[in-house]
Amino acid sequence: MRKKNSLCALGVVISIVISFALSACVRKGSESSEERLNIIGAGASFPAPLITAMADEYRTLTDKRITVNYQSIGSGGGIRQFVEQTIMFGMSEAFLDDEVLALIEESTGGRAFNMPVTLADVVPTYNIPGVGKGVVFNSEVLTNLFLGKITNWDDPAIAELNPGINFRSMPVTIVHRSDGSGTTNIWTSYLSSVSQEWKTTVGSGTSVKWPLGVGGSGNEGVAGAVMNSPGAIGYNSLSYAILNDMPYGSVINSSGNIIEPSFEATTEAANIELPADTRVLFTNTPAAYGYPIAGFTWIMVHENLDKNNAIKSRSEAIEVVRFLVWAITEGQELSELLGYARLPQTAVEKNIAMIAEIKWEGEKIGQQVLDEFQLGRDNEIANGDTAVASVE
């Protein structure tokens, strides 16, 4: 017990030390230059409130020298503008596939990195008169609902999972996203992972050919259609459902546990071994107490920032990297305050490794920024090689 308490205490000290170092580094950047810069990003709608809050906090930390402008246009739009080099960073709940990565490498001579910045949890939302939050679903029921095989709420398969609820006869109306969406990518990836029929007939992606249903644009479009249609079921981010007081269900995961959606359960879902590039889907997670319909939201950034036409100078590139480092570390403190699951440490470590490879005209500016922030040097602080390093 003493060892466990000592490790917990060490973790707190490390967090305080890193937080102090990061804030000091950001403020130092502000003091060392009077140049005011804008960082332009666009993409997924799900993380928009979080990124906006991060942008506000970061602007304060930099004495209003750095302004981060983020446009919530959807994951599909974020990927498109990132590839077209009209933004400094993009955001998506779908990682860049091999074809897009090859296109970017051909045009820029370098890689594009997918860096997790938060976790997206997608929940079944519904409008069943007289029934509140907490209806239990399993993979078979959800798949059959969205395939049109279950057409009424008094279906025995639903009743069997919810013995305490009296479902009256009412037709089911399916609601889905009509726009390209990372939320759709997570939802359909889950259905593809649990149903071979769904995988072969519908598949997964930011946009699919739905077997049936009514389309709504954005989280708000789906929510509006669900809440205005008794008997409807759709899917929304957990944070959106909570903020808008929408009934949402629990889901039985691959371990057979009924998981009520929560930020803790979403973080637990990502508690798996990650590849170096973090391009992994953990829908239907093997984590015993993880929520199964979840995935990363990635920030997309070029390895060679000088080849991104949206970034005009080395100083802009440096500030983009500084913001990225802050967002995946100290900026995570804003996550749960705003209804988002914070990154697991494994994801932070993978991000740091990718940031170290970011360049400007061949110069490894990513590693330089990490050195400023005292990160990425073989986890020196975590290994006890140094306690507190001053920020020069």
Descriptive notes:
This protein is of the alpha/beta class. The chain has 2 domains: 196 residues, Periplasmic binding protein-like II (D-Maltodextrin-Binding Protein, domain 2, 3-Layer(aba) Sandwich), CATH 3.40.190; 149 residues, Periplasmic binding protein-like II (D-Maltodextrin-Binding Protein, domain 2). The protein is built from 14 helices and 11 strands. The strands form 2 sheets. The chain has an 8-stranded mixed sheet. A hairpin with a 5-residue loop joins strand 9 and strand 10.
SSE diagram, text form:
Layout: H1 2-31, E1 37-43, H2 48-61, E2 66-72, H3 75-84, E3 89-92, H4 98-108, E4 112-126, E5 136-137, H5 139-147, H6 156-161, E6 173-177, H7 182-194, H8 196-201, E7 214-216, H9 218-227, E8 232-237, H10 238-243, E9 250-252, E10 258-259, H11 263-269, E11 294-302, H12 314-328, H13 345-355, H14 365-372
CATH-defined superfamily of the largest domain: Periplasmic binding protein-like II
Residue stretches low in confidence (pLDDT < 50, at least 5 long) are 1-20, 377-392
Domains counted in the coordinates: how many? 2
Shape: elongated
Quote the distance from N terminus to C terminus.
38 Å
Question: What's the CATH architecture of the largest domain?
Answer: 3-Layer(aba) Sandwich
CATH class of the largest domain reads Alpha Beta
Looking at the structure, the CATH topology of the largest domain is D-Maltodextrin-Binding Protein, domain 2
Strand content is: 15-25%
- What is the makeup of the main sheet? 8 strands, mixed
- Summed up, the helix count is 14
Give me the Rg, rounded: 22 Å
Helix content: 25-40%
